[in-house]
Amino acid sequence: MGFSLAPTAIAAGYRLEAYDSVGSTNAIALERGAAGDPGRLWLVTTRQETGRGRRGRGWQWTEGNLAATLLLVPDFDLTHAATLGFVAGLAIGDALAAVSPHVRFELKWPNDVLANGAKLTGILLESVMLGEKRYALAIGIGVNVAGHPEGTPYPATSLAALGASCDAETVFLALSDAWVDNLTLWNGGRGLDAIRQRWLNRAAGLGSEVAVRVDGNVVRGVFETIDEDCRFVIRTGDDMVKIAAGDVHFGAVASAGAA
User: Fold this and answer.
1) Verdict on whether the full-model pTM lies above 0.85
2) In whole angstroms, what is the distance from residue 190 CA to residue 230 CA?
3) Which domains does the chain have, with CATH numbers?
4) What is the pLDDT of residue 216?
5) ω into 155 cis (within 30 of 0)
């Protein structure tokens, strides 16, 4: 079976381009946006040669995994766009639960999906300015379907390792449907509080010891919540520390200090 959009996505005006192999779906999406594409375009592949994670980090790729990028050319302010990472997290969480209902999936701030404490999915948002306050946004989602990287500084897993028999095409079909549902709830940012509450219901490590590396420094405490702007909130004694960007570590790593 090839890649296809869910009927809800087609009805909402989304389009699809599927590739046998690409360098980076995010890079193609940004090029399309800069060239005038109107957006609502999904770009998908099971073979990505030069994919990357947050802060330019490399990402080992296994053929059969899913690389999907959604190109949007929004009419809302760029400051609202960052919260679409939480919409994407919920959407892929919903999709994974649909194709593998026997596994509990959790959302790790800001943009990972975990299964049994191991990383299964990563999300990367990138943008390019188009002039006159307009911009194109690429929401990249990588899912370990057939395999996962080895020797990483954090545990990683794949749907295959979890016993799921689905393929990347099945995961994407569910994702394209779940995205429409969660974006409708987000409602141009007006429904962010509902997204935030739903995200917290699936949050990994809520109430547990955590260490967050921020610009070379490590902040330790208890993961309290995410605030109304989706910043990570740590309780350190009597203080609440709000973090807009950083690398989060739970469990033994948090106790020993983030690596």
Assistant:
1) yes
2) 14
3) 7-201 (3.30.930.10), 209-256 (2.30.30)
4) 85
5) no
